[in-house]
Amino acid sequence: MQESPFYEHVIQRGQTRAKQEVILKLLRRQFGDIPESLATHITTLSYISALDDLFDQVLDAESLDDIDW
Description:
Blueprint (H helix, E strand, L loop, with lengths): L4 H27 L4 H9 L3 H13 L9
Helix pairs in contact: 1-3
């Protein structure tokens, strides 16, 4: 079954938002409060590949300075 472009956009947006939320949760769990500017930056990222790369960096980071924003 072929999905409509609108449906694909909605699915993509949902996946993007879910990844953003997971990254924010992980950051807060590892480092406590994070700057609002950082949270805003994460919620403006829209490429799944960029979010995946960021997620991997957060997993390995010992501090916020270890992450390539």
